[in-house]
Queue: 2 jobs
Job 1
Amino acid sequence: MDANVFPVPEAIAKTALIDNAKYLEMYDRSVKDSVGFWAEHGQRIDWIKPYTEVKDVSYDPHDVHIRWFHDGTLNVSANCLDRHLATRGDQTAIIWEGDDPSESENITYRDLHARVCRFANAMKAQGVKKGDRVCIYLPMIPEAAVAMLACARIGAVHSIVFGGFSPDSLSNRIQDSECVMLITSDEGLRGGRKVPLKANADKALETCPSVTSVVVVKRTGGAVAMTEGRDVWYHDVVAAASADCPAEELDAEHPLFILYTSGSTGKPKGVLHTSGGYLVYASMTHQYVFDYKDGDIYWCTADVGWVTGHSYIVYGPLANGATTLMFEGVPNYPSVSRFWDVIDKHQVSIFYTAPTAIRSLMREGEEPVQRTSRKSLRLLGSVGEPINPEAWLWYHRVVGDSRCPIVDTWWQTETGGILITPLPGATALKPGSATRPFFGVVPLLVDAEGNELSGATEGNLCIADSWPGQMRTVYGDHERFVQTYFTTYKGYYFTGDGCRRDEDGYYWITGRVDDVINVSGHRMGTAEVESALVAHPKVAEAAVVGYPHDIKGQGIYAYVTLVAGEEPTEALRKELVGWVRTEIGPIASPDVIQWAPGLPKTRSGKIMRRILRKIAENDFGALGDTSTLADPTVVDDLIDNRPDA
Ligand code: PRX
């Protein structure tokens, strides 16, 4: 056996839901008889009116539409709550672990149901109706899950904005989807530090006339301004509301949520997911990828501000009647053993995190891990960016005591759920590979002209057919949806990722092939950072690229040309970093700013990013042809003045 292949451990093989023979059989059917396969698996959730139509999909650029189970009706919150009450009402649905280790709470399905019903009624009393958009800007507290499910219960469409985003970013997102309500808290708490969420929200709302009501959760008790007639306290409105709130009957294609994500151009786009197909896919992938069984304690460390939190903290696990842990804090507070302490405290059996967290904890050595037991663990997961084999091996050996398989799950905000992944009982693992497609997923590698490549090869990753969790449109801009995903390679969904396929048919994601970078698992459009920089009065021009970063995966490297007469000082460099933080949020802070008297441009004025990427990577030997540049000497200048990244 190849030393770099990790076979399915015997203990897992004995109990896993899916073994290799079963995977191959189910996968084969899922692609040969997609309609039959999904007709059957669509039944895993409860429908009010059963569907008779399974799939209605076209990738034709003139008529892109994606509908699944579309004549069925259901309610997502009823699937996550009501249907479990008879069998598991007293089981813990959510284990909440606070930022401070002395704070935690177990919420049963019965209790969660009651909280959701109350808040759903409170939202209705505030005037929220089916189809209205509701923005959620909350820390990782149970009210975030309650708010999501309450929206789903009444057919309102939630749009969660990560608590690390600035007032400007929040405002842009609220405006784009014309939210009528904003749900926030006085402050957030992360690593012992307070985040002024309500103050940020107040600033954002200065430019958001659509928002008529703001609900504020009291988290820290910090002083906040409340605007008469607009702002209400969460605890007041739920106290006044009834716990009886029948779930609305909604079409399968009724929108469930909008989630903004970065693209290679322009502003972030509102990825729209709908109800039936999304829930089928999120719950099915959660069950099979994590081999979830009753009794497991499952922990995904993501934030509900990202798609991973939507599908794998809230919707997938709760639809499956799972116990899901929700963590308010950060991996290194109060100590770098925090993750492992929480695993021991709550006896977590399945742990799902991001490579950037693994790399930063790996830097702290093995002792902070080894001082904890972690005996309860049986499965580990990774998501958000490629995991380098070194981090994979450390995660496997040190965290998992060489006992736990790692599922390296590749997917995107757009895909709603995991598309390429090992199944723990079926797949031999190779560190760094997301391995094989999930049921119903047909990955294709194509060259720049769109020709399909066969065998062991490398190319651009497309998906040939639809799957139920696929996004349906860009909110308010279907044309952008078509342009972004369905016009580059006709007939396929284009992911924006590069990928290699090896001789065993395993997939290895190599990273984005467009102008999107992945910083600590957070997706960032270089164009967004550039437009924030050029909004500064002293900046004439900016070009932003990613470069390899030991902890973050990719760092943000900005080339900045100042307006004539401005001096490139250290103080200005700091000011620009702070400026981007304020404009977008801390996750967009440039790691390196290089002063660039000129940028490499073609004679037609197009910036040659390929060259900027190479310089940022410190790879001067491979600059390629620079003869088409309007002024080739700018390249030498950039190389000579490259700061130590
Ligand atoms: O480049 C891929 C990378 O993250 C991108 C999607 O980012 P986002 O929409 O924010 O969703 C992140 C959580 C699903 C992809 O286009 N990516 C995600 N997971 C992996 C990955 N790259 C390599 N391996 C992964 N497991």
Job 2
Amino acid sequence: MLDEKTPTYPPSDAFASTAHIDAATYEEMYAASIEDPEGFWGEHGKRIDWIKPYSIVKNTNFDFGNVSIKWYEDGTLNVAANCIDRHLEARGDQTAIIWEPDDPTEDALHISYRDLHREVCEMANVLKALGVGKGDRVVLYLPMIPEAAYAMLACARIGAIHSIVFAGFSADALGARINGCDAKVVITADGAPRGGRVTNLKDNVNQALLNVIHTCQSLVVRRTGQQVAWRSETDHWLHEMKETVSDDCPAEEIGAEDPLFILYTSGSTGQPKGVVHTSGGYLVYAAMTHQMTFDYHDGDVYWCTADVGWVTGHSYIVYGPLANGGTTVMFEGVPTYPDASRFWQVCEKHKVNQFYTAPTAIRALMGKGKEFVEKSDLSSLKTLGTVGEPINPEAWNWYNEVVGKGTCPIVDTWWQTETGGHLLTPLPGATATKPGSAMTPFFGIKPVVLEPESGKIIDDDPAEGVLCIADSWPAQMRTVWEDHPRFEATYFQQYKGYYFTGDGCRRDEDGHYWITGRVDDVINVSGHRMGTAEVESALVAHEAVSEAAVVGYPHDVKGQGIYAYVTLMSNKEPTDELRKELEVWVRSEIGPIAKPDLIQWAPGLPKTRSGKIMRRILRKIAENDYGSLGDTSTLAEPEVVDNLIENRMNR
Ligand code: 6R9
């Protein structure tokens, strides 16, 4: 919390004077956006091109049982035409995408808007030749290569709905998502080089499709040239099919509320849910936040280090920057390969002006020492950003001093897969930032802090409680794919009339927001969202496991680590081999990011008399804070707790 010693970091006068938004403009525009949302968004909707202009701006209802969210509903547009065609005349030769490969000795690519147009048209025609049309689903399981952006935009061009599955997910997780949205085609590559190693994507697709009942063709990009097992009837090489199609593909007229993509994300219960985003409002908001949050200007080179498998890659590598006619860097590799100077070498090589990454990457690089940063010329940098989890002040200060040399505003952007774009963030030319705070709402956003139990609004500052949003914004998710009741139950049931974010927060005496982390059973591992329930169900699917409970615990680099309490079947011995086996098992069920960091053998789990696992206690033990366990009197067998404390893994 802010006290007298908390420093604030205002932008320099020079930065503020050329910024899109300075402090006075922010105040004025924010007030206007809240007083008259229809007028405000009616005006800002014009930043993109419409085929048929909208006459209705906002039609939204947060009442549980009748939740419905529509923006610009009678307008039509094409998202790909907005990201490509409309820039051709003025900037056809400008670089749209700079692609930086995993291996620094391989050449980077500079893809112009004209190149992008041709590639996307060809890919769109290939999809059409495979029978894909408006409203059909296409799953993308790809490395960070330009074809990932081409495939997204090709879907958008013909009105197909893409659903990207992060290439780090396992075959099982991929199969579940292909089934979940009934995809007609999966687009993949032979292999994905990352950090000097190769993931055999095509093999994973083959394995995933064994569990897919409907016919799903695959379109394969040749990236590594490795041998792959081919399913002759339903597999197609992209480079072969491209030879057979025209490089002209008209952009379909798409309704503002037609889905653009589905993205599966973890929640506190059950299987991941398919978050649905639609076309018009999403693009308006992604473009506007990209321009204003990063203070992006024409000609700037912007780099977001995320993967397109996450929402950050959707809004802030592809759709936002390209809708603005920008130059966006796509990076195939990892921050530490070949060594910890890679990010900074890429910044120097491509003269990056805005750099956007995750706190976990900053912490990992901070641990390697500043020599790795100081080898590179970072004088092109203007704005730095973070996303995905709270940033601790130590990492913030390192980012500010060692990377930004104290001259680059840092924007700590809070948002979610569900929100489509930034909701709480400083604006670099307007906000005097505080390390660790997401500061202020973006235009049109009405955050409220509620008492967790009563749901009452806390008006006075400072305030601490759960973070909800009181009114809709254009990029809000519209529904859960084919499960609107789940959408309403997850986000609108607990606190009536509000969108419930699942995050806790504090608002300080100046009215600035500090995210305190999830209040549900979602953990955040290296900025990746993980439902503890997902990891638990993977563990209990193993024949040796009778019961499992998973919680997060503080981890120096990852933010949170995964701590699993495992009860074995009575005929199984707790051995180190079995521990290894369970780690490998979870990797293959979900993916490497879900591998437990610590597994503790638990002869019993603390439960209430009604049989509910007391997670509060498990969290405390995992945090090595067992002195403050609180009330354990409602436990069925209080003695199991002593055993767990004695054998705790995080000391
Ligand atoms: C964009 C993205 C969403 C959850 C969110 C919150 C956490 C994201 C944050 C942050 C503190 C920030 N989160 N940004 N916490 N400060 N700047 O990350 O989407 O993967 O859906 O995760 O991440 O807990 O609820 P997603």
